[in-house]
Write a structure and sequence with these properties.
The protein is an alpha/beta fold. It has helices spanning about 10-20, 45-50, 70-75, 80-100, 115, 170-175, 180-190; strands at about 1-5, 25, 40, 55-60, 105-110, 125, 140-145. Strands 3-2-1-4-5-7-6 form a seven-stranded mixed beta sheet, sandwiched between helices. Helix 1 (about 10-20) links the parallel strand 1 (about 1-5) and strand 2 (about 25). The longest helix has 21 residues, at about 80-100. The protein is globular, with a radius of gyration of 16 Å.
Length: about 190
């Protein structure tokens, strides 16, 4: 399959698909950190979607302004609320473009405002502990043309490690990484 992983610089999901023999590409406006620049499209996500015919598109749009954890800075009573609205509009355009070009599309984001401020399907929510990681990080998957992701390895542990990360220059990037168990489940379940 030809697979686009939009808004992914880590290449975690891209590598999971490549390991199964698929022609997968990560995409971000940043350089990739996964070690395979030859599999990375350093262009705007919408441009990447329009670049070729894709069999599957998985998107990880920036969540800083979309997540409920950002309500303190981007809530409706803040000076930066318009930034949230602009982010929703861009994410809606991303979703609409992908679903008009491809029959199989998934968008991943944490609990946020997409369904209250945009026009998206109801998401499936998953947790890392359902895929072999003893942590909590409730994550939504907006799915078009595919089945829900099924848990593969339910484990003990319900610690919020990601949420407890100390401040740092790369905290946002570290918090947004896809867990390997989830990436592998996506690759195995959505390419059958």
């Amino acid at each position: 399959m030809k697979v686009l992983i939009a808004c992914e610089e880590s290449q975690a999901v891209c590598r999971a698909f490549r390991e199964l023999g698929h022609e997968a590409y990560s995409n971000d406006i940043q350089e990739c950190s996964g070690g395979f620049p030859e599999w990375h499209l350093k262009i705007d996500a919408i441009e990447a979607i329009n670049l070729k015919e894709w069999d599957l598109i998985i998107m990880h749009p920036p969540c800083t302004k979309l997540a409920v954890s950002g309500n303190r800075w981007y809530g409706s009573t803040t000076e930066r609320y318009n930034e949230r609205l602009e982010s929703v509009i861009w994410t809606q355009k991303l979703w609409d473009t992908a679903t008009s070009k491809c029959d199989k599309v998934v968008m991943e984001n944490p609990v946020g405002v997409l369904n209250s401020l945009g026009s998206f399907p109801k998401p499936q929510y998953i947790q890392p502990w359902q895929f072999g990681h003893g942590e909590t990080k409730r994550t939504g998957l907006w799915i078009h043309g595919l089945t829900d992701l099924k848990p593969t390895n339910i484990v003990e542990g319900r610690e919020q490690k990601v949420w407890k990360m100390p401040p740092s220059a790369d905290r946002a990037k570290l918090r947004s990484k896809t867990y390997q168990g989830i990436a592998q489940a996506m690759a195995k379940q959505w390419t059958k």
